[in-house]
Amino acid sequence: MPPVATSQQSVSSNGSHAHKSARMGNGVDSVHSSHSESRWSTSMAPIIVFDSTKGAKIQKGKSTSICCPPTRELFLLPALPLASSRVRTTGHFHPRIAETLVEQAQKLTLSSRAFYNSVFPKFARQITEMFSYESVLLMNTGAEAVETAVKLARKWSYMKKGVPEGKAVVMSFEGNFHGRTLGVISMSTDPDSRGGFGPYLDGVGSTVHDNGETQTIRYGVIEDLERALDLNGKHVAAFLVKPIQGEAGIVVPPSGYLARVRELCTKHNVLLSCDEIQTGLCRTGKMLCCEHDQIRPDIVLLGKALSGGVYPVSAVLVDRDIMYCIRPGEHGSTYDGNPLGCAVAMTVIHVLVDEKLSERAETLGRDLPQRNCGIEVTARATSPRQGSTECNRHRRSEQCQGKDCVAVLPALEEPRRACEADIVRFAPPLVISEEDLRKAVNVIAECLNDLDRLDDIPGEVESEKGHKDVLTN
Ligand SMILES: Cc1ncc(COP(=O)(O)O)c(C=O)c1O
């Protein structure tokens, strides 16, 4: 059977590793099939082929990740500690999550949305109590949760705020990334996400018209938001914000910024909607990243880690006065609130709490920069491309200290998305052992140092051509 290309590709920053991986049979086939039969969901240089469990032994009872046969260890090492786009916070094959998945799959996986199922209410109670919101609406992917938040905010603004029908605005910030659906990319300022997919949704985005000029609301610049709300506050239903911008290059806003955003939203009767799909669920050392600023958003979006990496679940948490603006039957998805997803997500939350993964993220993240890795690795990664204004603007490593960089740990994941490869984001499962973490960071550091010795940097060529070069060399 030909190897199946997975979406879990990762990237080595070292050319020699790349060539080794390409010669290892499986890798070549996977890269070939990925490129001829599908499209990358992100623009990555697939130098390492990470086949997930294929050919890998699972270490039973160990929740960290996958153990690979020795022959593949060399090039898989950097890929292993990753959390599949911040999804596997609880590790690969966490036994409790796997057990729940299997157990629930043998009982009931899906019921018509016309009926209640026995698992959803338990999960709804658990998650609303955990985050102190009155209600939850479940979706599947993160982008659907964002779309749901936009719909909720619009409806709320017409019903409660008195925005004239059809005039509601949902604002976001420059450099945002909230997913790939059409409504969501309509907010984007990134030509790679947005370009060529128009026409776009009206009434969303990060631009305002100010004295005949179009201005973009910069992330982290409170005056921009202040001005935008002074100009348009009456029609603004919600502000959609990420407590840390990931794809824009791990941009941590100035301290106290979110608290000011909260104040301004309250002043203008605008819903503050926090996209915690990436930063939530322990990744930054708190259950929600916005807890660092001690604020309570009106809408909280969760996804990714909530699924345990085994079954997509996303959640929109709000109080009833917002939720009840949508009546039964006005919004939903075939799979929302299904018993399988609910059971898995419930166990994920138990694992996060029982294994104290917030504290773990805090501790591991705090120690890393002191060991001259983490953010230092990021800095070295920038060296081949220093000089670009755009990149320098986004390179905020000096702000990523202590709890902030924690386990948003500058990463090897999606390096090409994070500002043209100048920033490396390393987002390991939070169950990773200290030893594995140190080992992984050292390997990454070595790979990055090797870049200086390479004439051609893998991934610098146009992505399609790059793959071909790797395969044919
Ligand atoms: C902050 C944020 N929001 C939303 C999304 C979209 O999630 P999904 O890919 O599950 O639709 C992502 C995905 O990377 C994300 O990082």
UniProtKB/TrEMBL annotation:
Biological processes, Gene Ontology terms: L-arginine catabolic process to L-glutamate; L-arginine catabolic process to proline via ornithine; L-proline biosynthetic process
EC number(s) per entry: 2.6.1.13
Keyword Membrane attached: no
Enzyme class of the recorded protein, top EC level: transferase
Cellular component GO terms, alphabetical: cytoplasm
Pathway involvement of the protein, from the record: Amino-acid biosynthesis; L-proline biosynthesis; L-glutamate 5-semialdehyde from L-ornithine: step 1/1
InterPro entries in UniProt: Aminotrans_3, Class-III_PLP-dep_AT, Orn_aminotrans, PyrdxlP-dep_Trfase, PyrdxlP-dep_Trfase_major, PyrdxlP-dep_Trfase_small
Residue numbers spanned by region Disordered: 1-39
A GO molecular-function descriptor: ornithine aminotransferase activity
CDD domains the record matches: OAT_like
Catalytic activity: a 2-oxocarboxylate + L-ornithine = L-glutamate 5-semialdehyde + an L-alpha-amino acid
Cofactor: pyridoxal 5'-phosphate
Residue ranges with Polar residues bias: 1-16
Gene3D superfamilies (UniProt xref): Aspartate Aminotransferase, domain 1, Type I PLP-dependent aspartate aminotransferase-like (Major domain)
Protein family: Belongs to the class-III pyridoxal-phosphate-dependent aminotransferase family.
PANTHER family linked: AMINOTRANSFERASE CLASS III, ORNITHINE AMINOTRANSFERASE, MITOCHONDRIAL
NCBIfam families xrefs: Orn_aminotrans
Name this protein carries in UniProt: Ornithine aminotransferase
